[in-house]
Specification:
Layout (H helix, E strand, L loop, with lengths): L3 E7 L6 H10 L2 E5 L6 E5 L4 E7 L6 H10 L7 E7 L6 H12 L5 E7 L16 H20 L4 E5 L3 E2 L5 H7 L4 E4 L1 E2 L7 E2 L12 H7 L6 E4 L1 E2 L2 E5 L26 H11 L4 E4 L5 E3 L9 H20 L6 H4 L14 E6 L4 H14 L4 E4 L8 H6 L19 H20 L3 E6 L2 E3 L3 H15 L4 E8 L14 E3 L3 E10 H9 L9 H8 L6 H4 L9 E4 L4 E3 L63 H6 L20
Parallel strand pairs: 4-5, 4-7, 5-6, 9-15, 10-16, 17-18, 17-19, 21-24
Antiparallel strand pairs: 1-6, 2-3, 7-14, 8-16, 9-14, 11-13, 12-15, 19-23, 20-25, 21-23, 22-24
Length: 646
């Protein structure tokens, strides 16, 4: 036998029906004296909103869901909460109670009811099984919410699922400002999934269209009429036609609907039959959404991975997560490991504390045990220091983009990687992952990293595996025989992240690269003998480094050239002044110093030239991705601000 518990509270005390309606009407106007003895200005208060939430087995998302809901920059005394929860197998009710205990008094009213019994319905095979009984219960509850909002004369009802994170605190106000009858904020997931459809089949199911990608991609920005919105939906109840909106099939016009028993489809068709347009708005990045689990998938498995993906996106975009202190106790620490490797290093300049802080948050989310490796700071280098360190530059080297010598930042970057290779040899570390601090992790990073490493170890014969890079060769790279995740690396830029073996580190050190220095992302392709400049490669004899690459890649830059917030500590640092000896030292009879004739004479135009930080633009790149072991759907979007480039 189960019990139904009801918690109802209000900022003004318990009241019902007519009393609530009268009070809400009275709150519509306030008066403010602005000047003079009699002159006053009438100020209309913001519309009232009832927020409707259904909760089931969301203990893993609720701490973040409630934190972001609380962060909404909308007067809480103009908001009412309507929450229902049942058939939980986790701490969802406990978390909801804990949050409401602290926040209930802030809101105009709170109506929270839940079933205290635990476990799935008898008719359900698993907790992710959607059968007719479950659909019927959800339909009944959403209809109850809609009716409750009407009865309290709310101006709006905002349906929102408990696995949505509204990271934009202005979401509610912005949507209301649109003055649309039904509007949804477009939400970003860890794939192509979002909370709207652009097409619907004749039997009422989802249909992919070109417009879907354009909206999801932010290629077209605004408010767009669509046949379906769900998961986070704002409905204006002041529009008379919305009285005809329903979640129940029996309320639809007789004989018009022969589709499935499905809450979002019935609601969409009721809007359609009533002549009420639905819109999705993508003017801003409003927030994030979890992809619904399929039957057989589990919360401890797939859903927790998805949550990690989404939280990682939020850290990338905002630098931190919103998690209220009283809810943090419900979030367990993720156990950390080294991905079965000997060690993981993150190269980071001591002065780049904001990058280090962000990366540490990623490591906490992903469960990565990483050592901070202080980078050699190019700002602390000078020509004399570089010379005293015994560094000499490769004769004839010029940056391929700018035709300039190396910068101090590039020298510092090379030395940072070089120092890790030396430490590997000194400590006999067999396999090491080297990470830079301006990276973002692709979805399902841990699972995919283990897959890459398992393939590599099973096949053998490698020294280095790129986890992140910029491909420069147009021809397709060959798959490693027997692997679904690895290709033979071609000419590449960037050292965002790579796994290197002890033997690989020894090979890189044996060539004594400090005596013929060039940037590290030019040195690596030379060492695996896949570099287009024969003049440079001729200075290195043992070019036997065996380099592979994860495909698709597991890491990408946080920013590309031209993006807001793009900073390069290598490209944008000071250059050497052209007075350092080249290989072999000064010629006889010279002054002992040589001039580097690769200096860029047009420094003022450098910002208009291509840079290494530019996004990879290769015509054959999509073909490589489509043949990989990961579905094409995770990779065929090119989005602005990196919001969905997965």
């Amino acid at each position: 036998m189960c019990s139904i518990v009801s918690v109802r509270c209000s900022s003004g005390g318990a009241f019902a029906g007519l009393a609530m309606m009268t009070m809400m009407l009275a709150l519509l106007l306030t008066t403010t004296i602005v000047s003079g003895d009699n002159q006053i200005e009438l100020t209309e208060q913001l519309p009232t909103v009832m927020v409707a939430v259904l909760v089931r087995n969301k203990a893993h998302t609720l701490p973040y869901f409630f934190s972001y809901l609380e962060d909404l920059d909308y007067p809480k005394d103009r908001m009412s909460l309507w929450i229902r929860s049942d058939h939980n197998e986790d701490r969802s009710i406990e978390i909801t109670k804990a949050w409401l205990k602290r926040t209930s008094s802030l809101y105009h009213s709170v109506d929270f009811k839940y079933r205290s019994e635990r476990g799935k319905r008898e008719s359900e095979k698993t907790s992710t099984h959607w059968n007719e009984e479950r659909f019927s219960d959800v339909i009944r509850l959403k209809q109850d919410a809609l009716q409750a909002a009407r009865m309290m004369w709310a101006d709006y009802i905002f349906f929102i699922d408990a696995d949505v994170f509204l990271t934009n605190s202005n979401t509610l106000g912005k949507l209301i400002d649109r003055k649309l009858p039904i509007v949804a904020p477009m939400l970003v997931s860890d794939g192509l999934y979002s909370n709207f459809w652009c097409g619907m089949t004749s039997d009422y199911y989802y249909q992919r269209t070109d417009d879907y990608k354009k909206i999801l991609n932010y290629d077209q920005i605004g408010q767009w009429p669509v046949p379906m919105v769900h998961t986070a939906v704002l409905v204006s109840l002041n529009i008379a036609q919305t009285r005809q909106l329903t979640f129940e099939r029996k309320n639809l016009p007789v004989g018009r609907y022969d589709g499935p028993v499905d809450d979002i489809i019935i609601f969409a068709m009721s809007a359609n039959y009533s002549g009420i347009p639905m819109y999705v708005c993508n003017e801003l990045l409003y927030g994030y959404i979890m992809v619904p689990l399929e039957a057989g998938e589990t919360v401890p498995g797939k859903d927790l991975e998805q949550l990690t993906n989404v939280l990682s996106y939020i850290v990338n975009e905002y630098g931190a997560l919103s998690l209220k202190q009283d809810l943090s106790r419900f979030v367990a620490d993720v156990p950390k490991d080294k991905l079965s490797l000997s060690h993981i290093y993150m190269i980071n300049l001591e002065r780049r504390t904001e990058r280090r802080t962000k990366m540490l948050k990623h490591f906490d989310l992903l469960g990565l045990d990483v050592e901070h490796f202080p980078a050699v700071d190019g700002k602390q280098l000078s020509d004399k220091k570089v010379y005293d360190m015994g560094i000499r530059f490769l004769p004839g080297y010029a940056d391929p983009f700018h035709k300039r010598p190396m910068t101090m930042g590039e020298i510092g970057c090379f030395l940072s990687h070089y120092n890790i290779w030396e430490r590997m040899v000194r400590l006999n570390q067999q396999e090491v992952l080297v990470l830079e601090d301006d990276i973002r992790f692709e979805p399902f990073f841990r699972r995919r990293a283990y897959g890459v490493l398992a393939d590599a170890r099973r096949i053998g014969g490698w020294d280095l595996i790129y986890f992140g890079r910029k491909r420069l060769q147009e021809e397709d790279e060959k798959w490693i025989d027997g692997s679904e995740y690895l290709v033979k690396a071609g000419y590449s830029y960037w050292t965002l992240g790579y796994v290197i073996t002890l033997e690989g580190a020894k090979k890189l050190l044996r060539e004594q690269p400090l005596s013929k220095l060039l940037p590290v992302d030019e040195y690596l392709p030379i060492m695996f003998d896949n570099h287009p400049n024969d003049s440079w490669t001729s200075h290195f004899r043992d070019r036997t480094l065996s380099a592979w690459s994860a495909a698709p890649l597991l890491l990408y830059p946080t920013h590309y050239t031209g993006d807001e917030g793009y900073i390069s500590d290598t490209e944008d640092s000071l250059r050497i002044d052209g007075t350092l000896p080249a290989v072999g030292g000064p010629s006889k009879g010279s002054s002992g110093m040589v001039s580097n004739d690769t200096r860029d004479g047009g420094q003022g135009q450098a910002s208009q030239e291509p840079k290494k930080g530019d996004k990879e633009q290769l015509p054959n790149a999509p073909a490589l991705l489509s043949e990989s072991g990961i579905g094409q759907g995770e990779h065929d979007l090119e989005t602005k601000n990196r919001r969905s480039e997965l």
